[in-house]
Design goal:
Layout lengths: L2 E8 L16 H13 L6 E2 L8 E10 L6 H11 L4 E9 L9 E12 L12 E3 L5 H8 L4 E4 L14 E14 L12 E10 L6 H13 L5 H7 L18 E8 L5 H5 L1
Parallel strand pairs: 3-10, 5-6
Antiparallel strand pairs: 1-3, 1-4, 2-3, 5-9, 5-10, 7-8, 8-9
Helix pairs in contact: 1-2, 3-4, 3-5
Amino acid sequence: MPTYSLTLEYDGTDFAGWQIQPTVRTAMGVFSDALRAVTSETPALTAAGRTDSGAHAHGQVVGCTLERAWAPDTLRNALNATLPADLAVRTVAIRPDGFHARRDAVERTYRYLVVCREGRSPVMRRNAWTVRGPLDTDAMRSGAAHLAGKHDFAAFGTAPRAGGSTIRHVTSVSIDHDALPDTQATHPGEPVLETVAITVHADAFLRGMMRSFTGALVKIGQGRATPEWLASLVDGAIARDPSVSVAPARGLHQWSVRYEPKPTHQELAA
């Protein structure tokens, strides 16, 4: 009974999150239906994380064990021929027995996309948060520096399980600014698209943590708070802080999950 990991990409706009729910469309529900249609099996699934309703994934990792052995490319192609347009399997890999997509993950990466402009952004409305720009990215970087390291992030989110720890280890936070110019000079000096991407690498995330990080950093970028305000929230709360706004889900992108390679049976025997 081989064990597989499947890396999924999906547009979360029309999904009520990852986890199966009885009355709404979810990414896990759609994927489970396709897996059953292709394999005639209904295996237990593990997932690296649960995305929010409306949030997107580029590297959601799902683990399962099947009774029948499949060549990875064959399984991927068969699933993609069955899945709807807003969900696809990027890769399939064979994993050692006991692989668990959540417990075995050693690092997760989330990215949040912000569009800076005065008016609406019709093209980006499904996958980014449009805010009044520009943002002071230097101030945002100063604030982000206080988030790196092992801290209690209770001010920014809640543990997935009741009574669980709110301590997480943030490896790094980066703020990347990009402005694509108007090459036809229709509006000289005004970019066609100006974005700020916030990328966070951590061992794990609390519920709402990445969206709260973004809300706090945008607040700093707009000059409505200081980096020192953000520093005061780290390790200093026992619950979500009401001064931290939660950015909308549409700009959140689950980016990737990293695993340490495990030895195979042959390597263990040697």
